[in-house]
Design brief:
alpha/beta; Elongation Factor Tu (Ef-tu), domain 3; six-stranded antiparallel beta sheet
């Protein structure tokens, strides 16, 4: 018997969004607890008993009966080149400990929460926009997603639309959730990297909301370069980086890049 057999969970749902992006869900172990925004290590069983494990944000909220993940397919990637072929009832290894910095506990109380993402970096925010506690703690939640092309925005658009109509959480969301999508390589209603949209203040003009203030809180998840650029913008506005044991005005995930 594999030493990972107790960590194997069946796939319950798969959806391919395009040739390079897919989402899937697995059974949730009854004893598994996590905070919305955290990640876990997942992988595929193999005969060598040395599975390749990678950090994946849990895209479903803490109350969900299943665990959802959102993945890019990396050509010749050790894990994703095989993970893309999973079918219903296949087994996924998930290690039992969740962790991460993109959690509400790592932020001081504030009025607005900005969730800034690019690519598969939207995954932890798919969890947080479906978490009632997010709306209990903040008056306004602004979620942004930037990708190269329009089809790459489909997952976040569906998650946000379904959230607004979900019987469980729509009463929490009310009119608090604002979304903003942009592309960098195709003409779209909004164009440009989120850093550019913040620096030029275009996003605030487009949404007809106020500029960054000391009452704003930020989470961001994307490439290392994007995270560093956003961190510089935060510091320029005199906002400090927070952590689980030291809450502040902004947090980013350092464990992996989206």
């Amino acid at each position: 018997m594999s030493k990972f057999s107790n960590n194997c969970h069946k796939v319950t749902f798969i959806k391919h969004w395009n040739a390079s992006l897919f989402s899937f869900r697995i059974q949730r172990p009854p004893s598994f607890k996590f905070r919305s925004g955290e990640f876990v290590m997942i992988g595929l069983p193999n005969e060598e008993d040395k599975p390749i494990l990678r950090a994946y944000s849990i895209a479903s909220p803490s109350w969900s009966e299943e665990l959802e993940f959102y993945s890019i397919i990396v050509k010749d990637g050790p894990l994703t080149s095989k993970l893309k072929n999973i079918k219903i009832n296949d087994e996924i290894i998930m290690m039992p400990k969740s962790t991460g910095t993109l959690v509400l506990d790592a932020l001081k109380p504030g009025k607005r929460l900005f969730l800034l993402s690019s690519g598969t970096g939207f995954a932890p925010f798919a969890s947080l926009v479906r978490e009632p506690e997010t709306y209990e703690k903040f008056q306004t939640v602004v979620v942004t997603h930037t990708c190269r092309t329009i089809p790459e925005l489909a997952y976040s658009q569906e998650v946000i639309n379904e959230s607004r109509n979900d019987e469980i959480i729509k009463e929490f969301i009310s009119n608090k959730l604002i979304s903003y999508h942009s592309t960098t390589r195709e003409k779209f209603i909004n164009n440009g990297r989120i850093t550019e949209l913040l620096n030029t203040k275009k996003i605030f003009k487009d949404l007809e909301i106020e500029d960054i203030s000391s009452n704003d809180r930020f989470m961001f998840c994307g490439s290392m370069g994007l995270n560093n650029d956003l961190k510089a913008i935060m510091i320029k506005h005199n906002l400090k980086e927070g952590a689980n044991n030291n809450p502040a005005e902004f947090v980013l995930e350092k464990a992996f890049v989206g």
